[in-house]
């Protein structure tokens, strides 16, 4: 019912984003890429953190700010809550988590993150990259020039004229990671972060690195450098979305769903690239 009421208020124009109270970010641009309605719904909805989000945040903290780990996360105690002592220990831990607003990790999640961190420590390329860092977890607050929209970026790491972003992935192989990264809109993130870097530091980052750790054994690690095309695509997409957000605000189009983007493109439903290749193979077979 809460979701239904929120959607109704958005459609009636009663819920309109106020950018003076909250800046835009990579995640909010991703939501707008779905539609203005998705954007508004996410803007006003506070969702519980997913396991993947908590694990990713814990990995970043252990990698870049290990001293801050205990102030942000707590590992669920492995005790028998059926016993008096076990229940006492667990209740005390639970009260501490609530009092400090900590994110919770299960013992198995903590073990997995420890294995990711160990894999990074064993990677010569990863250690060389991290050794060149000059700052970590940098918050870049800036204003987009052509739209005046406020934006915040949080860079994992900064080196000598470069940006470092840590990612966990199904595969650290570069072609597979490129495919998965495109799906998750990593170029958009890179383009937006690069623009923020220019606004704050007054220079273009010469390199954008991904430190990629595979989520499952054997936890392979790769250090991958984004190509100029990867970054250009991300910058262009970020520019397009920011200008459309301002247009949406000016015209009061927040209630529009996916039809919004169809107005500025086409609505032709085409075969994906892999299916076209399959069709070509069938045609050759038929000859």
Sheet/helix structural class: alpha/beta
User: What is the terminal-to-terminal distance?
Assistant: 57 Å
Radius of gyration using CA atoms only:
22 Å
The CATH architecture comes to Alpha-Beta Complex
| Main beta-sheet strand count, sense and barrel state | 5 strands, mixed
Strand content: 15-25%
CATH topology: Lambda Exonuclease, Chain A
- Counting DSSP E segments of at least 2 residues, the number of strands comes to 7
How many discrete domains? 1
Polypeptide structure, described:
This protein is globular. The chain is of the alpha/beta class and 287 residues long. The N and C termini lie far apart (57 Å). Helix content is 54%, strand content 16%. The longest helix has 24 residues, at 228-251. The chain has helices at residues 2-11, 26-34, 36-43, 51-64, 69-72, 84-100, 107-122, 124-131, 174-183, 186-201, 228-251, 259-262, 273-286; strands at 73-75, 103-105, 135-143, 150-159, 162-169, 207-214, 221-225. The chain has a 5-stranded mixed β-sheet with strand order 3-4-5-6-7, sandwiched between helices. It has a two-stranded parallel ribbon with strand order 1-2. The protein is built from 13 helices and 7 strands. The protein has a single domain (23-250), classed as Lambda Exonuclease, Chain A (Alpha-Beta Complex). The mean pLDDT is 94. α10 (186-201) packs across α11 (228-251).
């Amino acid at each position: 019912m809460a979701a239904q009421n929120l959607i109704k208020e958005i459609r009636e124009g009663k819920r309109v984003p106020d950018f003076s109270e909250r800046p835009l970010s990579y995640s909010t641009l991703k939501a707008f890429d779905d539609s203005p309605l998705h954007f508004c719904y996410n803007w006003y909805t506070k969702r519980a953190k997913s396991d993947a989000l908590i694990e990713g945040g814990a990995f970043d903290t252990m990698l870049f700010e290990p001293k801050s780990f205990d102030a942000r996360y707590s590992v669920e105690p492995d005790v028998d809550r059926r016993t008096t002592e076990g229940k006492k220990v667990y209740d005390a831990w639970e009260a501490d988590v609530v009092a400090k607003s900590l994110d919770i990790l299960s013992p198995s999640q903590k073990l997995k993150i420890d294995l990711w961190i160990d894999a990074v420590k064993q990677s010569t390329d990863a250690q060389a990259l991290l050794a060149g860092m000059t700052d970590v977890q940098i918050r870049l607050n800036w204003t987009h020039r052509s739209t005046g929209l406020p934006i915040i970026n949080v860079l994992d790491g900064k080196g000598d004229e470069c940006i470092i972003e840590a990612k966990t992935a199904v595969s650290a192989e570069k072609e597979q990671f490129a495919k998965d990264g495109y799906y998750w809109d990593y170029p958009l993130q890179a383009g937006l972060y690069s623009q923020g870097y220019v606004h704050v530091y007054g220079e273009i980052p010469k390199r954008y690195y991904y430190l990629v750790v595979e989520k499952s054994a054997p936890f392979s690690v790769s250090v991958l450098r984004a190509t100029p095309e990867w970054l250009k695509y991300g910058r262009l997409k970020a520019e397009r979305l920011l200008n459309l957000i301002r247009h949406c605000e000016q015209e009061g189009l927040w209630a529009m769903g996916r039809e919004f983007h169809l107005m500025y493109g086409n609505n032709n439903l085409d075969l994906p690239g892999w299916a076209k290749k399959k069709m070509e193979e069938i045609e050759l077979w038929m000859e």
